[in-house]
């Protein structure tokens, strides 16, 4: 609807958005003009009142629809503009929840899903590089399998203690970044690998409570560097080049995506604080991201 002066509701909304960018965000005039143009494109064909029923899926598709018609840089800028606009709409009460996180970043620089992951065949080769006839091999096998299945960080593996293993419930207690504590299900194959190490590989120690210990004295728990080193050594034996725990963490996300897990489910296993962080894992594969966006739930990640 237009007023007598020819100013539409969309114009007034975008004027308010531009003012917000300049006053609250300190955005340059040049960038403000670009953001406003991007948001105007987003609003084309949508009434202002439709913003109140906007869903995360609508937002995701709005970004994905730019792919193919615009350059990667333009698509990335469109996503930034849309995130800022949706945050502005939430702050001003136009929408009841902050949907800015649904505008996932998309990059056209790479086409692989997770550039730093390894393939299923490489996973098998890596695990076979651990000689489970020996104590060291049983330990290394359990560590690598744990990271591949649950995406643990090296420090989380190193700090895993015997008391964190709830065999009856089939759960692990993980002590993560920022003093965060989470319970994760213990996959059967991981549980069997850890049990084999504890029964027939872990050195006897009256004081050490860490699950994974050094093979040679002093019999203390592995450090973060020790976990990284054993992964790298197994990768060299397998002929895979340089592989670190973080790459195996990426691989865990790849495997979950391949199995049909949603971004929400992957974020919960990897213990991300926001869905936007999980979205980074999928941003380079537009077609896979398009498929994942369809069942995106309306709630937020806990």
Structure description:
The chain has 302 residues and is mainly α. The chain has two domains: 9-109, DNA polymerase, domain 1 (Orthogonal Bundle); 120-254, Orthogonal Bundle (hpI Integrase, Chain A). 50% of the residues lie in helices and 4% in strands. The protein contains 13 helices and three strands, in the order αααααααβββαααααα. It has a three-stranded antiparallel sheet, with no helix packed on it. α1 (9-23) runs antiparallel to α2, α5 (120-128) packs antiparallel against α6 and α6 packs across α10 (245-258). 31% of the residues are buried. The model is unreliable at 1-5, 110-115, 283-287 and 298-302 (pLDDT under 50).
Q: What is the strand content? A: under 5%
Total count of strands: 3
CATH superfamily of the largest domain: Intergrase catalytic core
CATH topology of the largest domain: hpI Integrase, Chain A
Low-confidence stretches: 1-5, 110-115, 283-287, 298-302
Helix and strand layout, with pairings?
Elements: H1 9-23, H2 29-43, H3 56-64, H4 72-91, H5 120-128, H6 135-150, H7 154-158, E1 165-166, E2 171-175, E3 181-185, H8 188-200, H9 224-237, H10 245-258, H11 263-270, H12 275-279, H13 286-293
Antiparallel strand pairs: 1-2, 2-3
